Backbone:
């Protein structure tokens, strides 16, 4: 069992909410993003999703798109990413998973990316546009290096696909709450429960966490009532954009503890 899975199971056993927080590397600069991520971890984020800025972020909502565009405008390069991971993991014990579209990883080289991620202290990869059928290289290298691999379960996934995702995921399974792009929503799509239920039918012991559209403490608590964790992104970027590190810290504390 991976460190990520152990942490999520431990939080569940204690009856505590699990909060997974996303922030893009390089926003607005690499140094700034490192400080923001460390602050998030120290303020209560249980697992950190560190995003790789990409020029064609088809799944990302406007808030994340603008942030990643700013990172790229400010000169972010993928070669800087692993140093950012290393700086974060050297300062906090929080598992750091990389959220990345598959094309940048292919361009970098799957084996090279996996090895550099492991060397930097990263826990694994979340791959929103990679399905298990097309992940042979990543499956092999993640097995060899003991890295988490988080695949997506969506409202349109067949039970057969959910079985495959549950069998091959490690760390957690990312249950998408609604079809579409990321971003805060007033009401969390009820389809989230159906996706989690479908995963549960597989009898997997891998935790299931829900993302896309979560923005309030009440939603974090609600999701944790039927899943193993809530994934939040846009609201953290908004907090940092509008009020810097201090507002980011306050937002993490509010979503983690409801205060």
Residues:
């Amino acid at each position: 069992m991976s460190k990520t899975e152990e942490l999520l199971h431990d939080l569940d056993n204690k009856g505590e909410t699990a909060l997974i927080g996303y922030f893009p590397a390089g926003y607005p600069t690499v140094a700034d993003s490192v400080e923001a991520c460390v602050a998030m971890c120290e303020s209560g984020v249980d697992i950190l999703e560190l995003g790789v800025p990409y020029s064609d972020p088809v799944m990302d909502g406007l808030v994340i798109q603008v942030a990643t565009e700013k990172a790229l405008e400010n000169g972010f390069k993928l070669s800087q990413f692993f140093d950012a991971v290393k700086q974060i993991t050297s300062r906090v014990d929080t598992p750091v998973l990389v959220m990345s579209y598959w094309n940048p990883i292919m361009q970098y080289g799957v084996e090279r990316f996996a090895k550099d991620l492991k060397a930097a202290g990263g826990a694994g990869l979340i791959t929103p546009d990679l399905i298990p059928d097309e992940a042979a290289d990543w499956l092999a290298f993640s097995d060899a290096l003991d890295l988490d691999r988080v695949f997506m379960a969506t409202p349109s996934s067949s039970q057969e696909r959910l079985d495959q995702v549950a069998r091959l995921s490690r760390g957690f399974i990312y249950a998408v709450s609604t079809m579409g792009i990321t971003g805060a929503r007033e009401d969390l799509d009820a389809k989230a429960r159906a996706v989690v239920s479908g995963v549960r039918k597989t009898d997997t012991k891998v935790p299931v966490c829900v993302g896309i559209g979560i923005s309030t403490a009440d939603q974090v608590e609600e999701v944790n009532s039927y899943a193993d964790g809530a994934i939040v992104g846009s609201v953290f970027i908004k907090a940092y954009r509008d009020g810097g590190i201090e507002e980011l810290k306050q937002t993490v504390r509010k979503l983690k503890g409801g205060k």
Summary: The chain has one domain: 3-257.
